């Protein structure tokens, strides 16, 4: 158990819908990362937050947004869902937002868009 | 351009034998970090080992060691004394400069047989 929690574990929804994925980082970790794992694209970095502020952005679609709250939990919002958004979404956390520090991954949320 | 290359889609190894999983990377930044993660069939991502670009010695963590050859830009993972529980996908990842986002390879599926 990495100490990173993600809810829900599974999510099935229809095209055009909006969903919210939730992540709680390990105790003491200030940085949260979101990754998407799909068969087509592999594992891709989406976005990073550090202590409530956006720090880095990757290949995140405009239909997707995220935030980190004062208690450091984070939410990833996916809207106008398409079939291609079906993937495993990981949240990871680390102590700081820079330098050498391993990222600890949560169990992931498996999103299926029908 | 592909930053992390894992050329072995699948590998087989007999229990108790050693196995090497290949990883090559591409970067012009003198400061970078290399990571290996394990993803069992249950889906979670487990951090295994880290090597910094300025580290003089190859990293080791228990049965895992990293064969870091800077001039060749390779960071191969060596698993000694393989166990059945080592069967999983293994991902090599890189962090460049002072960013924290990880760039992942396509992974190698390792199967350990009795």
Descriptive account of the structure:
With 114 residues, chain A is mostly beta strands. Helix content of chain A is 0%, strand content 53%. Chain A is built from no helices and 11 strands. Chain A has strands spanning 5-7, 10-13, 19-24, 31-38, 42-50, 53-57, 64-68, 74-78, 87-94, 104-105, 109-113. In chain A, a hairpin with a 2-residue loop joins β5 and β6 (53-57). The model of chain A has no long low-confidence stretch (mean pLDDT 93). In chain B, β10 and β11 (103-104) form a beta hairpin. By secondary structure, chain B is mainly β. The model of chain B has no long low-confidence stretch (mean pLDDT 93). Chain B is built from no helices and 12 strands. The chains are: A mainly beta (114), B mainly beta (114). Chains A and B meet through β4, β5, β9 and β10 of A and β5, β6 and β11 of B.
Produce the secondary structure layout.
The complex is a heterodimer of chains A (about 110) and B (about 110).
Chain A: E1 5-7, E2 10-13, E3 19-24, E4 31-38, E5 42-50, E6 53-57, E7 64-68, E8 74-78, E9 87-94, E10 104-105, E11 109-113
Parallel strand pairs in A: 2-11
Antiparallel strand pairs in A: 1-3, 3-8, 4-5, 4-9, 5-6, 7-8, 9-10, 9-11
Chain B: E1 4-5, E2 10-14, E3 19-21, E4 24-25, E5 32-39, E6 46-52, E7 60-61, E8 64-69, E9 74-79, E10 88-96, E11 103-104, E12 108-113
Parallel strand pairs in B: 2-12
Antiparallel strand pairs in B: 1-4, 3-9, 5-6, 5-10, 7-8, 8-9, 10-11, 10-12
């Amino acid at each position: 158990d990495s100490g990173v929690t993600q809810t829900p574990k599974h999510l099935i929804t229809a095209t055009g819908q909006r969903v919210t994925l939730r992540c709680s980082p390990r105790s003491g970790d200030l940085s949260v990362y979101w990754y998407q794992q799909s068969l087509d694209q592999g594992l891709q970095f989406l976005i990073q937050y550090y202590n409530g502020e956006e720090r880095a952005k990757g290949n995140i679609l405009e239909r997707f947004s995220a935030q980190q709250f004062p208690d450091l939990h984070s939410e990833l919002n996916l809207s106008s869902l398409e079939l291609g958004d079906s993937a495993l979404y990981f949240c990871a956390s680390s102590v700081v937002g820079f330098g050498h520090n391993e990222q600890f991954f949560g169990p992931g949320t498996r999103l299926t868009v029908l | 351009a592909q930053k992390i290359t894992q050329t072995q889609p699948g590998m087989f190894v007999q229990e108790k034998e050693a196995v090497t999983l290949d990883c090559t990377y591409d970067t012009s930044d003198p400061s970078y970090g290399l990571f290996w993660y394990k993803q069992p069939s249950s889906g979670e991502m487990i951090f295994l080992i880290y090597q910094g670009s300025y580290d003089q010695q190859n990293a080791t963590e228990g049965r895992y060691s990293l064969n870091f050859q800077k001039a060749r830009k390779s960071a191969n993972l060596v698993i000694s004394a393989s166990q059945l529980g080592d069967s999983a996908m293994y991902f090599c990842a890189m962090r460049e400069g002072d960013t924290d986002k990880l760039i992942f390879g396509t992974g190698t599926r390792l199967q350990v047989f009795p």
